[in-house]
Amino acid sequence: MASHRRPKQPSRTRVTVLTTAAAAAVALSSQAANAAPSEKPSKDEVKAKVDKLYEEAEHATEKYNGAKEKQEKLQKEISTIQDNVARGQEELNDLRDGLGSMASAQYRSGGIDPSVQLFLSADPDDYLDKASTLDQLSGQQVDALKKIQVKQRELAQQRSEATDKLKDLSSTRTELGKKKSEVQGKLAEAQKLLNTLTAAEKAALAEEEARATRASERAVLGSTAPATGRAASAYSAAQSVIGSPYVYGATGPSSFDCSGLTYWSFAQAGIAIPRTSQAQANAGTRIYSQSDLQVGDLVLFYGDLHHVGFYAGNGQVLHAPRTGTVVRYESINNMPFQFGVRV
After folding, report:
1. Which of 264, 318, 319, 329 could form a disulfide with 252 if both were Cys (CB 3.0 to 4.6 A apart)?
2. Strand partners of residue 307
3. Other C-beta atoms lying within 10 Å of the C-beta of residue 271
4. 28-59 burial, b if ≥16 CB within 10 A, otherwise e?
5. Where are the beta strands (DSSP E) in the chain?
């Protein structure tokens, strides 16, 4: 006989939960259907972001340049100290050999006085401190022992200095690696953004830059104030490499970063200036008014002075702008001017 039991009804709580979940699902589906697709950034927005990344990369580049310069300086100093230590050790060995010869002569002439045996000790300081024994030594022996004492102290000091500089070199190399990674990361991020542009957008950006460069060139040609004095040769050298690509950390002769261009150009004129833009800011007399600038003066930009170029006259600069560009003329107003430097 068939069962006539009524089927079990779902509880009111379960119905409420299911109803709420279903309503939420419908609402989410509706929102997803009506949501506007994410808009692709415009050409100008991409350019603004890329310019910011390039500025950050250049800031890191100048830190990289400073660490690299410090590394090279430390390596030279350490090499010099190590050479001095090697020569000093040879001199110390010669002094000890001479003292040994005197002791041998005393032995052959009738035996070594007990005090003379201390001559060959590794610690002559201890012996010299015992002034009561000095009258047992000849003047020649005392002089030899004192020379050994001085030389040992010199070598200990030099070895300590070398150890400190080696530690500094290790931390500098670590900093150098970090800054290099930072630069590369910023450049990769910028390139990723540029890759989102269409070929037409890239061409439009290139044309905009080309027009700006042509305008700057015309302004420079219209300048009536040529470079003079010590800066003339340096500025001429910079003009000779117009069109060379920007490469971070490069100091010529075929590629440059901003401070690398000014550093190289002055070197061609036989004038040594520091490597980084921040250090170049102290390479001469500062000029705070743009109206007082002369062609060939260095011009510094941004609050942290991470960009430098040459003043080219008529409100223009000659510089290595950033990755993806070449040495060229540009308006001084394209960047936040801080001051000029007359080397």
Report:
1. 264
2. 301
3. 14
4. eeeeeeeeeeeeeeebeebbeebeebbbbbbb
5. 285-287, 298-301, 307-313, 316-319, 328-331, 337-342
Burial per residue of 208-230, b for 16 or more beta-carbon CB atoms within 10 angstroms, e otherwise: eeeeebeebbebbeeeeeebeee
pTM here is 0.72
Cα separation, 235 vs 233, whole angstroms? 5
User: CA 246 to CA 265: how far, in whole Å?
Assistant: 15
Concerning whether 307 is annotated as a catalytic residue, the answer is: yes
Q: Write the CA distances from 91 to 105, 147, 171, integer angstroms.
A: 21, 10, 33
The answer for residues whose C-beta is within 8 angstroms of residue 221's C-beta and 6 or more apart is: none
Q: Token digits for 191?
A: 């390139």
Active-site residue (options: 4, 59, 306, 319): 319
The 8-class DSSP code of residue 114 comes to: G
| 212 — pLDDT class (breaks 50, 70, 90) | very high
Q: Region 19-37: what's the mean pLDDT?
A: 46
Q: Enter the tokens of residue 172.
A: 């500098």
- One of 4, 59, 258, 306 is an active-site residue; which one? 258
